[in-house]
Amino acid sequence: MEIVYYVACSLDGYIADRQGSVDWLNAIDDGEEDYGYEEFNQTLDGIVMGSRTYEFVLDHGEWVYPDHPSWVFTRRELPLAHPTVTLTKEDPTDLVASLASRGLSRIWLVGGGALAASFASERLITEFRIAVVPVLLGGGTRLLEGEFSAIGLELLGEKKYPNGMVHLDYRSIPRGD
């Protein structure tokens, strides 16, 4: 099972500003470049996200992931955006095992930072695909919001864009390697 944390962050490591907004990403959105998103999207079997990320997506229009089953980690009752959405209270390790037993093999961890840290603490993230945007936010939601033990990473590739964004792809090095 591959869990890919694919996310954009500021140079100082934030995925949202102090108000929880990602409007700062508009600076790199020229409407033409998709930064490899469509190709990446074609490789997925499913999506997982935290409740705040889910609510953010809901606040910005129609459900943007109708082609993939999605699991939202929450302890609250939330509206279902689409028939492909499942709300879950499961532990990340248990959900990943359940998804693997269903034959799913590649899952996108959309966000947010707290959920990503909980996946990292269980060493469930196999790949980090980080788009580093040339902006300093000075505060907000960190790329990984929480504590976890060190995780070794191997650089798989990088790509620079004319607007200054750098896309970095890393594979998690399994323990003992």
Which structural category fits the helices and strands? alpha/beta
Q: What is the 3D form? A: globular
The largest β sheet comes out as: 8 strands, mixed
Portion of residues in helices? Answer: 10-25%
Mean pLDDT: 94
Give the spatial strand order of the biggest sheet: 5-4-3-6-1-7-10-9
Alpha-carbon distance between the termini?
19 Å
Query: Low-confidence spans: pLDDT under 50, at least 5 residues?
Result: none
Question: What is the number of strand segments?
Answer: 10
Q: What's the assembly state of these chains? A: single chain
| Cα-based radius of gyration, to the nearest Å | 16 Å
Count of individual helical segments = 4
Strand percentage, roughly? 25-35%
Pattern of helices and strands: EEHEHEEHEHEEEE
Helices and strands, with pairings:
Layout lengths: L1 E9 L3 E3 L20 H5 L4 E5 H9 L10 E4 L11 E4 L3 H10 L4 E6 L1 H9 L5 E7 L7 E2 L10 E8 L5 E7 L5
Parallel strand pairs: 1-6, 1-7, 3-4, 3-6, 4-5
Antiparallel strand pairs: 2-8, 7-10, 9-10
